[in-house]
Amino acid sequence: MSFRLAACVAALGLVTMAASPALAQKKGGTLRLYHNDNPPSTSLLEESTIASVMPFAAVFNNLVAFDPAKVHESIDTVTPDLAESWSWDATNTRLTFKLRQGVKWHDGQPFTAKDVQCTWRMLIGKGETQDFKRNPRKVWYTKLKDVSINGDDEATFELSEPQPGLLALLASAFSVVYPCHVPQQVMRTKPIGTGPFKFVEFKRGDSIRLVRNPDYFKKDRPYLDEITVRTIDSRATRMLAFATGDYDITFPSDVTIPLMKDVKARAPNAICEMTATNTQINLLVNRVNPPFDNPDIRRAMSLALDRKAFNTILFEGNGRLGGAMLAKPEGEWGMPPDVLATLPGYGPDIEKNIAEAQAIMQKLGYSDAKPLPIKIQTRNLPTYRDPAVILADQLKKIYIVAELDILDTPRWYSRLQRKDYTIGLNVTGVSVDDPDGNLVENYSCHSERNYTQYCNAEVDKLLAAQSRELDKDKRKQLVFDIERLLVEDAARPIILHSSAGNCWQPYVKNFHPHDNSQYNNLRFEDVWLDKQ
């Protein structure tokens, strides 16, 4: 869709929003959620995990957002949020947003264009205040020279060259607008937003509470009075608590296929859907640490991956085989299966791949009698631990003996941030199904989230080329070229794209899990409870 047409769709979205009836919705009630982990902080601009997005997305707004009612996200489903409309100039390098008037921050201060300018100047390192502890998506905005404002209700993003994916990036749950007048230290613990719910408390490792924002700018939203979140470490306990009616919606993608059958048996009226999550299980190899600075060892490890076995054990065959971009059919940018099968390690002959990997390791002096001992670091969640166990078992076939090193969430992300690991089993969540929100973020030389320290000048050149390409078909071909190089370099071997279940009680209305991202439908402003 052209930039011009996107602006028209934005205007049409406003009309549709205004015309939608709200006759059947019931107001009030508390949405009871559980959490499977401990959020590192409440600051979405500094975090990279669903652990922070799920409980705190409802505090904030974006300039634009993906339509929560449309399960498949694309540039065509971007709708107005704090911006009423947007338009590109003739050069496709100036994106101007007309902002809503009369919006207030939760502390009563007015929202203005200056907050938009301040937020993105901080993100690109141009603001007066730059006290982010982390800035994982700074690389999204390398083309952004500045944000200029015209009064209180107009902001223009000024780019050095076209970036057709920018609007999708701005719709991500990680692209919320911050208040200029609130220090970042406060945003990490007691966030102030404009969103449908106001922050009340965060008891680390225990509970989170949000309450309805009575001054929300969207008329009659939200329907709910409160959102409460309880932390439950045990997955079995979480599933049982949902099945017995203690909670209304499961944590995003927390329900495996076997567990979904169990939940349905215990709670036959529950609504459950299996979807792709746009989270990918991958092998992290810190390529600066010996002996893994040797590309031959990295190639051998990549060839040793039996993706079919991972899929059978973890997902009963319902996972998706793909490269770095989300696989088809849900993925907008996924490689066709026949192209994917030509990549090293992706062919059907697993025994041939393992034999080649063994030969590489034997040449380097490793054998059953002289194995290579390693530690595989991973996060203390079943979605990480379970595939890490399989990985350790598969690496034995190529004379690598692995011991698991399990880390809690804050330590895990701190280690990755510092590149303080050698081998890791990671689950990378991709908030936006766009190459700039995935490939650029995870593989460009200077990205904060390039955890493996991979750097290839040719890949960076292609990343820049795809980012400015306005023709989607040509952009896809550039993406496929990048994917091939990443596999050949064993940059961050993708094991599998996850599929998982979401369940909710039958009285929960207007909740729609999205099929190509688990991040962008968690504001709950349209959700209501049909209880007697």
Structural class: alpha+beta
Q: What's the alpha carbon Rg, rounded to whole Å?
A: 23 Å
Strand order of the largest sheet: 13-12-14-11-15
**Stretches where pLDDT falls below 50 for ≥5 residues?**
1-23
What integer is the average pLDDT?
Answer: 93
The shape is globular
Profile the largest sheet: 5 strands, mixed
Strand content: 15-25%
Percent of residues in helices comes to: 25-40%
Would you spell out the secondary-structure blueprint of this structure?
Elements (H helix, E strand, L loop, with lengths): L2 H17 L10 E6 L14 H7 L7 E3 L11 E3 L2 E6 L5 E6 L13 H11 L20 E6 L4 E6 L6 H5 L13 H4 L9 E7 L3 E6 L13 E6 L3 H9 L13 H10 L4 E15 L9 H9 L3 H9 L21 H4 L9 H14 L8 E8 L2 H14 L4 E8 L1 H10 L4 E7 L9 H5 L13 H12 L3 H17 L5 E11 L3 E2 L18 E2 L3
Parallel strand pairs: 1-10, 12-13, 12-14
Antiparallel strand pairs: 2-3, 4-5, 5-7, 6-7, 8-9, 9-10, 11-14, 11-15, 16-17
Helix pairs in contact: 6-7, 8-11, 15-16
Describe the protein's architecture and organization:
- The structure is a single chain.
- The chain has 532 residues and is an alpha+beta fold.
- The chain is 30% helix and 20% strand.
- Residues 1-23 have low confidence and may be disordered.
- Strand 8 and strand 9 form a beta hairpin.
- The radius of gyration is 23 Å and the shape is globular.
- The two termini are 44 Å apart.
- The chain has 16 helices and 17 strands.
- A five-stranded mixed beta sheet has the order 13-12-14-11-15. Strands 1-10-9-8 form a four-stranded mixed beta sheet, with helices on one face. Strands 4-5-7-6 form a four-stranded antiparallel beta sheet.
